[in-house]
Automatic annotation (TrEMBL):
It comes from Pseudonocardia cypriaca. It comes from the Bacteria. One of its GO terms (molecular function) is DNA binding. It holds the Pfam family Sigma70_r2. Belongs to the sigma-70 factor family. ECF subfamily. Residues 105-154 form the RNA polymerase sigma factor 70 region 4 type domain. Gene3D superfamilies: 1.10.1740.10, 3.10.450.50, Winged helix-like DNA-binding domain superfamily/Winged helix DNA-binding domain. This is RNA polymerase sigma-70 factor (ECF subfamily). Keywords: Sigma factor, Transcription, Transcription regulation. Interacts transiently with the RNA polymerase catalytic core formed by RpoA, RpoB, RpoC and RpoZ (2 alpha, 1 beta, 1 beta' and 1 omega subunit) to form the RNA polymerase holoenzyme that can initiate transcription. One of its GO terms (biological process) is DNA-templated transcription initiation. Residues 7-70 form the RNA polymerase sigma-70 region domain.
Length: 289
């Protein structure tokens, strides 16, 4: 298949939009594949604004996909987290764009309706006007304004706030990993915020909590209790996950889990997300806008 230069020029942005709307790389790639097939059949001479046209294709396909995966996610065993993306340093063009990719925000977006989520992503992450979004979603401009307002209010009430400086990320991540793997209760308590929440996504394939664990003492004691069950030959790579602090843990060189962290102003972990579902741990998950 001949590579279409117009589609390829916008591929990263289209993937970024689809991923933010859907939360998994696989679903986003499916949408991009279908968008390419439809774009390949279009008379390009009749398309005045290729970028807007392609975003409309991807948005409508993503909305259809969101409705299809709803039942699958409702049957998921335990908490469902977005598929983590290991983002290379400098991949994101701005703090606002990185925030729109964060695990914490993507979890909040799961609580929106499909069209609210699409409107929020198009408006907040990609800067489209209400009129442009109305064309992409098949709504009126007035309806889009209302959807954008509702989504923004909902997200602002629930989204985590990243106030820690990036220079603090590596230090607190290193301290947590050493304490968690080593089973050091005191060290864990020193790095956890009092109201910390731990969420593990394994889809029933690992013995992980089926509900979020909350509170510093409870989270610390959980990690101490599972020390004997860490697999052998562990490797740890501190990296950027979805634009924020995180780590990839491997066993014999194979991905075992991905941690994503949210850090409070005091430099303590207030959210720990762990993805262990093998289906969400493919190699090379790196993304740009």
């Amino acid at each position: 298949m001949t590579i279409d230069s117009v589609f390829e020029r916008h591929r990263q942005a289209l993937f970024g939009a689809a991923y933010r709307m859907l939360g998994t790389r696989a679903d986003a790639e499916d949408v991009l594949q279908e968008a390419w097939l439809r774009w390949d059949r279009v008379d390009r001479a009749e398309v005045e604004e290729p970028r807007a046209y392609l975003f409309r294709l991807v948005t409508r396909l993503a909305l259809d996909q969101l409705r299809r995966v709803k039942a699958r996610r409702e049957a998921y065993v335990g908490p469902w987290l977005p598929e983590p993306l290991l983002t290379s340093p400098g991949a994101e063009e701005s703090a606002e764009l990185a925030e729109s990719l964060s695990m914490g925000l993507l979890v909040v977006l799961e609580t929106l309706t499909p069209v609210e989520r699409a409107v929020f992503v198009l408006r907040e992450a990609f800067g489209f006007s209400h009129a442009e979004i109305a064309e992409m979603t098949g709504r009126t401009e007035r309806a889009v304004r209302q959807l954008a307002y509702r989504a923004r209010r909902h997200v602002d009430a629930r989204r985590p706030r990243r106030e820690a400086a990036p220079s603090e990320h590596r230090e607190v991540t290193e301290r947590f990993l050493a304490a968690a793997i080593g089973g050091d209760l005191a060290a864990l308590l020193s790095v956890l915020a009092p109201d910390v929440t731990f969420v593990a996504d394994a889809d029933g394939r690992s013995e992980t909590p089926r509900q979020p664990v909350r509170g510093a003492r409870e989270v610390a004691e959980y990690f101490v209790s599972v020390v004997p069950f860490w697999p052998p030959h562990l490797g740890v790579e501190i990296t950027t996950v979805n634009g924020g602090p995180g780590a990839l843990v491997t066993t014999d060189g194979r991905p075992f889990l991905v941690f994503s962290f949210d850090i409070d102003p005091a430099g303590r972990l207030r959210e720990i997300d762990a993805v262990l579902n093998p289906a969400k741990l493919p190699a090379g998950n790196r993304v740009q806008r």
